[in-house]
Amino acid sequence: MPKLEDLLFELRMQEKTLERESKRAEKEHLALKSKVKKAIAEKRIEFAQIHAESAVRKRNESLNYLRLASRLNAVGSRIRSAQSVQNVTKELGKVTKGMEKAMKTMNLEKMTVTMDNFEKQFENLDLLDKVLQDTMEGAMTTGGATAQVDELIGKVAAENDLQEQLEIMKAPEAKKETDSSKTAEADDLTKRLQALRN
C-alpha cells in the first residue's frame, strides 16, 4: 500500500501537469483568436468561422483541464481531511481514557479540563467537515458551440473596430433571408387574390 504522503505528492504533480496543459490550450486559443481577427479584416467569413470554432474548442479544452485539476485538488483535500479526522479520532480516544480516569477519581477539576478537550475535538471535526464541504462546492456551465463561435467573432470584431467588415460579410446571408421572406409574402398575397376572385 502506498503511503498517504506519496499519494498526495502524486496527486499534486498530476494537478500541476493539468494546469500546464490548460495554459498551453489557452495560449493556442489566443493565437486562433488573432487569426479570427485577421480573417475578419480580410473579409473572409469562412476562415473566421473555422478559426473561431478551433478557438472555442481550445478554450473548452483549457477549461476541462482546469476542471480536472480542480477535481484532483478536491481529492487531495479529502485525503488530507481524512488524515486529520484520523488524528482527531486518536485524540478523542485519549480524551475518553482521560475521562474514564477522571470519573473514577471524581476530580471535578480534571473532569472539566477533560470535557473542554472533548468539546474542542468535536469543534475540530466540525471545522474539518466545513472545509471539506467548501472545497467540493461550485461548478461551471458552458453554452452551445454555435453561440460561442458567433460571440467570439463579434467580440474580436468589436475589439479591433472591424464591425463594418463583419456586417458586410454577413450582408449576403441577411439578403437571402429577406428575399425568401418577400417570396413567401408574395405567394400569400397571390393565394388571397385568387380566393377573392373565386
From TrEMBL:
Sequence ranges of Basic and acidic residues compositional bias: 170-191
Keywords: Coiled coil
GO biological-process terms attached to the record: vacuolar transport
Coiled-coil region list: 4-42
A Pfam family it matches: Snf7
Disordered: region residues: 168-198
Transmembrane segments: none
Domain of life: Eukaryota
Record family assignment: Belongs to the SNF7 family.
Protein's recorded name: Charged multivesicular body protein 1a
